Amino acid sequence: MVFKRDDFPVSFNVARCKKCGVCSHFCPGQAIAFDNNGYPCAKAPEKCTRCYTCFHRCPDFAVEVKDNDQHAVSAG
């Protein structure tokens, strides 16, 4: 299952996510928060700059980022 918001270019694969918080901690725009189950989700999608920091820092390859052309970049 993947949680995402249409206006947020980042999605999270909860099957891979270990809820470590690395994605949120390193997000320079503070665009990532956590839902009631502890999984990452969009906090402020307008602050996401598509810098890919969350993507590169995630130790579980649970982050997918859409580039400006809406092509998904996934590590897994």
Low-confidence stretches: none
Cα-to-Cα separation, first versus last residue: 14 Å
Kindly state the percentage of residues in helix.
Answer: 10-25%
CATH C-level label: Alpha Beta
Shape: globular
Can you write the helix and strand succession as a string? EEHEEHEE
Determine the mean pLDDT: 85
Major sheet attributes: 4 strands, antiparallel
Count of helices?
A: 2
Number of distinct beta strands: 6
- Strand order, sheet with most strands: 1-2-5-6
And the CATH topology?
A: Alpha-Beta Plaits
What proportion of the residues form beta strands (DSSP E)? 25-35%
Q: Give the structural class.
A: alpha+beta
Structure in words:
This protein is an alpha+beta fold. It has one domain: Alpha-Beta Plaits (2-Layer Sandwich), CATH 3.30.70.20. It has two helices and six strands; from the N terminus they run ββαββαββ. The chain has helices spanning 22-26, 53-57; strands at residues 2-3, 10-13, 32-34, 40-42, 63-66, 72-74. Strands 1-2-5-6 form a four-stranded antiparallel beta sheet, with no helix packed on it. The protein has a two-stranded antiparallel sheet with strand order 3-4. The longest helix is centred in the first third of the chain and has 5 residues, at 22-26. The chain is globular, with a radius of gyration of 11 Å. The two termini are 14 Å apart. The mean pLDDT is 85.
Question: Would you spell out the secondary-structure blueprint of this structure?
Answer:
Layout: E1 2-3, E2 10-13, H1 22-26, E3 32-34, E4 40-42, H2 53-57, E5 63-66, E6 72-74
Antiparallel strand pairs: 1-2, 2-5, 3-4, 5-6
